[in-house]
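Researcher: I'm preparing a figure for a lab meeting and need a structural model of a single chain. I don't have an experimental structure, so a prediction will have to do for now. The sequence is pasted below. Please return the structure as tokens so I can convert it later.
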Amino acid sequence: MNSSEKILIAGVGNELREDDAFGIEFVRAWVKSMPKCDQINTMEVGIAGIHLVQELYTGYSMLILVDAVDYKRKPGTISIEEVEKLSDIEQMPLDQKREFLADMHYTNPTRAMMLAKALNVLPEKVYILGCQSAKHDGFDIGMSKEVTSAIPVAIKELNKWLAFNPNITETAS
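Model: Understood. Here is the structure written out token by token.
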């Protein structure tokens, strides 16, 4: 990776919705356990994404969103998958555009990525590091044992994935 390439690791989720806190807790653990690397930035996005768009304006070659997912897999299963398609705001009818842009305070990560794409600040390479949730339907603080235990596994998997990615020559390890 040349010195001008940068990676943003963004933890998304809601700490009040059980396992949905995975992305936020992952980023906190990543920052504590991984050495600082000038080419990798991290941030907590939470459930709103407008500050994600603002951060993307600083220029990144890759975005890795970390989030709890429901892929109908065993709870705690970690996956890294490329985001291949986002809706294009420019292709929306005018009334849908107005509705989409009406209140950006409640922009979730998917909508934030769509806005970043429309503003030409979304990196070409976007991935989701997902953890299969066990509990995600209720309002409660605290993640399941399976998802909590998956955080160190996810850190190792991401570090290994970054090390073996042909576009990256330097990782935080």
